[in-house]
Amino acid sequence: MNAAVDDTHDPRLESFVASANDPATDFPLQNLPLGRFRRGAREAWRIGVAIGDQVLALRDAGFIESDDMNELMAAGAAARSALRRALSSALSKDSDRATELRRHLVAQADVELGVPCRIGDYTDFYTGIHHATSVGKLFRPDNPLLPNYKWVPIGYHGRASSIVASGHPIRRPCGQYKDADAAVPVFGPTRRLDYELELGALVGQGNALGEPIAIAGAASHVFGLVLFNDWTARDVQAWEYQPLGPFLSKNFASTVSPWIVTLDALAPFRAPFARPDGDPAPLPYLDDTQDRASGAFDITLEVWLQTAAMRAAGQRATRLMHSNFRDSYWTLAQLVAHHTATGCNLQPGDLLGTGTQSGPGPDQGGSLLELSNGGRNPLRLPNGETRAFLQDGDTVILRGYAEAPGRRRIGFGDCAGTIVAAASG
Q1: How is residue 384 annotated by DSSP?
Q2: Which of 47, 99, 195, 371 has a 20 to 30 A CA-CA distance from 397?
Q3: Are residues 369 and 253 in the same domain?
Q4: Residue 97 and residue 129 in one domain
Q5: Which of 250, 256, 247 is nearest to 202 (CA)?
Q6: Does residue 405 fall inside a structural domain?
Q7: 178: how many CB neighbours lie within 10 A of its CB?
Q8: Which residues have a Cβ under 8 Å from the Cβ of 246 and sit 6 or more positions away?
Q9: Looking at the structure, do residues 105 and 133 belong to the same domain, yes or no?
Q10: What is the pLDDT of residue 143?
Q11: What are the phi and psi torsion angles at 136 (to 5°)?
Q12: Are the beta carbons of 315 and 308 closer than 8 angstroms?
């Protein structure tokens, strides 16, 4: 079953939480994303829902019995939808529970927001065809896309233990790399640190080992989406990636936004999915009528950068690019179906990265590698600074939102990380 548009998406709905009615908020009543928060390091993580600039503690307010997010995710799409309907009614402007629920609200600015669930496994896909083409042209000008790209969702298994929440500092990694004109490699802090603009799909209900998930029901196994920054040491990557792919260039950190925007909230922003004319049709196990009709999502994605000098001068971050998830070459359902085609068992909380979501334009690269043409053409920032790759003190902020005529805009909140110097020694 796919999440359907219902009365919880009515753009006329307002909340008794005044900040949720601000047109600029990422978290109106029509969104209701879920995450984990705590009010101090000694407090256990609680499940909350973002509403305006507030967070509501769900177990304290009687909506759930446990603060285990993975348990909630495992309950399935029907339970997730039922919780959304209950929250929409209880947080509405005319709710008879308003006085009671105000006691369980706390400002988001006053809490710590964490990784939204326990992530046991992480797989990063390569669904952004514009990114794959741009990067391919840097290394293989005559053959940018490898022959398998349009047939199989390419991915690799990543490192779940180093996934951190938005706001966590990112330490510049050390690694082994080799300059093109050098005789031997060296070891030291990466000189080509980069970000990657991605979405992450978090698995809800999993599957038993040996039992593939059919494409027709695959989307119902996705609980929701987060923003995802897959930080990359490009010099380390270039030296190590053949023949087995990413390793130390990717394992030092990845950042997720703290709020899971559920597939229910995104239902009004689904869109038809179609391959460009002349491209091969997916093999039958990756093809489904309903997925073709509504497998894409109209989600605008952005990257913002604030350097240390900008911060010191009181200057806000500047936007580097924007793209849209509609341009993804593979759907979420196809990722789930392909991942489990061997019988691989996905589990609640597993993260499927989408790969870098670049747009078709030269100014829509989802990484500095693309925007700077491999470092050869550094970006000039509004304050006169330039960037080919990230410097210590740089803060990268990913943002995403969905909007459509006749619908309330919903967003993901910030996914941010600041680069700090490499460890000494």
Answers
A1: S
A2: 47
A3: yes
A4: no
A5: 256
A6: yes
A7: 15
A8: 124, 156, 158, 232, 237, 240
A9: no
A10: 79
A11: -60, -35
A12: no
Answer yes or no: do 314 and 395 share one domain: yes
**Cα 397 versus chain centre, distance:** 12
Angle formed at CA 190 by CA 189 and CA 194, multiple of 5 degrees: 145
Residue in the block written with tokens 């989406």: 225
Residue 343 φ then ψ, to 5°? 95, 5
What CATH number corresponds to the domain at position 53?
2.30.30.230
The last residue of a domain, from among 66, 81, 113: 113
Helices (H), 287-381: 289-294, 308-312, 332-339, 368-371
Q: Domain range spanning residue 159?
A: 122-420
Domain shared by 135 and 39, yes or no: no
d(CA 290, CA 56): 35
In whole angstroms, give the CA distance from residue 305 to residue 135: 21
Boundary (domain end) residue, out of 83, 113, 143:
113
Q: Is residue 176 part of a domain?
A: yes
Count the domains in the chain: 2
In a domain, 226, yes or no: yes
Structure tokens at 205: 């209900």
Query: pLDDT digits over 11-52, tens only?
Result: 999 999 999 999 999 999 999 999 999 999 899 999 999 999
Please, what's the b/e burial string for 291-315 (b: 16 or more CB within 10 A of its CB; e: otherwise)?
A: bbebbbbbbbbbbbbbbeebeeeee
For residue 391, the domain's CATH number is 3.90.850.10
Query: Each residue of 377-415: pLDDT tens digit?
Result: 999 999 999 999 999 999 999 999 999 999 999 999 999
| Type of residue at 275 | R
Residue 398 within a domain: yes
Catalytic member of 104, 131, 221, 338: 131
User: CA-CA distance, 326 to 124, in Å (whole number)?
Assistant: 18
pTM given for the model: 0.96
Are 296 and 272 in contact by the 8 Å Cβ rule? The answer is yes
Q: CB under 8 Å to 62, separation ≥6 — which residues?
A: none
Tokens representing residue 191 in the block:
């000189």
Residues 177 and 291 in one domain: yes
Q: Within this chain, do residues 39 and 173 fall inside the same structural domain, yes or no?
A: no
Residues 341 and 359 in one domain: yes
- CA gap 61, 66 in Å, rounded: 12
CB burial of 325-360 (b: ≥16 within 10 Å; e: otherwise) equals: bbbbbbbbbbbbbbbbbeebbbbbbbbbbbbbbbbe
